[in-house]
Amino acid sequence: MTKDQAMIHTLLKENDELELEIGRLREMLSRHKWIPVTEDLPKERKAYLISIIKTDSGFQLVPRVAEYVGIVPGAIANYIGKGKNKWKILDDGGLASLDYQDLLECVAWRELPEPYKE
Predict the structure, then answer these.
(1) Of 102, 89, 30, 97, which Cα lies nearest the Cα of 62?
(2) Per residue in 60-101, pLDDT tens?
(3) Please, where are the H alpha helices in 2-57?
(4) 52 and 61 Cβ atoms separated by less than 8 Å
(5) How far apart are CA 1 and CA 4, in angstroms?
(6) What is the pTM of this model?
(7) Coil vs helix vs strand at 38
(8) What is the pLDDT of residues 34-51, one digit of tens each?
């Protein structure tokens, strides 16, 4: 193998490794982006970080941790949303009381980050 061929072989190998790393980074970034509920809803019933708006004013509240539950019949305290876009607020502090919950709607969601590790 000539020097040029060896250099080309090395560069091709490094390129393949870089493409794999770029793929891993893209996958990681896609797990940490906001997903509008108009595009998709979670597949699993578990906790997510959700972005909430007040439907009467469009005011966006601080994101909350909530469990995606899908369809829940009737009005139940600590639940917000309508139809398939139903969420149980886990850290509500009275946010989703029966008097207030009809004014709240989840507009986007994302996976929770991994817990801190030393």
Answers:
(1) 89
(2) 888 889 888 876 665 565 677 776 778 887 776 655 555 667
(3) 3-31
(4) yes
(5) 8
(6) 0.66
(7) coil
(8) 999 999 989 888 999 999
